[in-house]
Automatic annotation (TrEMBL):
Keywords recorded for this protein, A-Z: Signal
Alphabetical list of SUPFAM superfamilies matching this protein: Metallo-dependent phosphatases (SSF56300)
Signal peptide: 1-29
Superkingdom as given in the UniProt entry: Eukaryota
Identification of the protein by name: Calcineurin-like phosphoesterase domain-containing protein
Family annotation (InterPro entries): Calcineurin-like_PHP (IPR004843), Metallo-depent_PP-like (IPR029052), PAP14/16/28/29 (IPR011230)
């Protein structure tokens, strides 16, 4: 695993602070940041992905506590992105001055970006934009999937009916022509806002025949050395919740089967392109492999503080995944007190680490990091904590 000691020294120096803004603009214009259906690796460098799970921006937005948690969540993401860099000083110095400041290649927002049921405004996109700001400001591309809280119906807080008994309505100025609504912001609106207003977002609204599930799409990581050769496929699925049941439907499973066989027909271990899967709510398969008490081998992790809160039903996606040797791992969020990876047949089932200060639980915050090396090929993962410490390294390929 790369260390970060040299970068820690540099990140605290005035030199990096002075040149940071300039190199962010270089990063944004880099060919690896093209807003297409692919991301390109850096020649001779591993491809690194940070997973940000369960940020819960906008939680208790009407209190002093809520906005403070959003600030803390931004600090966590900033710390992770600023720490996850190569440890080789010469390479880092070269890269800082000739290519980009930040060396995390990609970020995945793994659902529950906002707590929509706590946001007393019609447009949750304002909080969504805050959540993606640490990634966007560093010129790093990203993709997102939806969680159960992202478009949950607004719930009127009891506090609004205490004391004076007059709800603290947050509405447009009178006679502005806008309606005052607390209906919340739908998945489709959230995704449209992200796609329309962010050139670095690779998120997609997915096939219309899979709606109300929105975040169903696939991205490919292309080799820098072989420009038209996929190094790995990244699949994103909407696991429901909020305005509809917590489930990956049969239609989504059939879509994945059809698309994966089309773009990656030779899915044998020897010849197929490796595949990684991302959704928010764990499938029932996670309950089968969950450690009973302490995390023990072959599982790897640091916290196992609650039971798996799985999807409401299994509609076939796991049966498809276990039959594809090319599928190496599935990554989910949802459970804030779990961060383990456990094998399930030939693939791994992994939780991210709770990143946001919103949501339940007082466990230390962090991010699951993925690192993909091209030669020799490997996929590894570890947890990077807010304080910079690292634990739970696991080889996934």
């Amino acid at each position: 695993m790369p260390t970060s000691s040299y970068f820690t020294i540099l990140s605290n120096s005035c030199l990096v602070l002075l040149f940071q803004a300039f190199f962010i603009s270089i990063a944004a214009s880099s060919d690896r940041h093209t807003p297409e259906n692919h991301i390109r690796t850096r020649a001779g460098a591993p491809f690194k992905v940070a997973l940000f799970a369960d940020l819960h921006f906008g939680e208790n937005a009407w209190t002093d506590w809520g906005p403070k948690q959003d600030v803390n969540s931004i600090k966590v993401m900033s710390s992770v992105l600023d720490t996850e860099t190569p440890g080789d000083f010469i390479y880092l110095f070269f890269y800082l001055f000739l290519k980009a400041t930040y060396l995390t290649d990609f970020v995945v927002y793994l659902g529950d970006v906002v707590t929509a049921n706590n946001i007393p405004i019609a447009n949750a996109s304002l909080y969504w934009d805050q959540a993606i700001s640490p990634t966007r400001s560093r010129g790093i591309p990203w993709a997102s999937v939806f969680g159960n809280h992202d478009d949950a119906p607004f719930e009127w807080p009891m506090e609004w009916f205490a004391a004076s008994g007059i709800p603290q309505l947050v509405c447009p100025v009178l006679n502005s022509g806008e309606e005052c609504s607390f209906r919340g912001t739908s998945r489709l609106e959230l995704m449209k806002n992200e796609m329309d207003n962010n050139v670095l977002s690779l998120s997609k609204s997915g096939p219309q025949d899979l709606w109300p599930g929105i975040s169903n799409y696939v991205l490919q990581v292309l080799s820098k050395e072989k420009p038209h050769t996929p190094l790995v496929y990244l699949y994103f699925l909407d696991s429901g919740g909020g305005t509809y049941p917590e489930v990956i439907s049969t239609a989504q499973a059939d879509w994945f089967k059809r698309i994966s066989e089309e773009i990656n027909p030779d899915s044998t271990y020897k010849n197929g392109v490796p595949e990684l899967i991302f959704w928010h709510i764990p499938s029932k398969a996670y309950k089968k492999v969950a450690p009973k008490f302490r995390i023990h081998k072959p599982c790897v992790g640091s916290i196992n503080k609650e039971k798996v809160a799985a999807q409401e039903a299994e509609m076939g996606i796991m049966k498809i995944l276990v039959k594809r040797p090319s599928v190496k791992a599935v990554f989910v969020g949802h459970n804030h007190g779990l961060d383990w990876c456990c094998p399930y047949g030939q693939l791994w089932l992994c939780f991210a680490r709770h990143t946001g200060y919103g949501g339940y639980g007082n466990w230390a915050r962090g991010s699951r990091i993925l690192e993909i090396n091209e030669r020799p090929f490997s996929i590894s993962s570890w947890i990077r904590m807010e304080d910079g410490s690292v634990h739970s390294e696991v080889i996934l390929s």
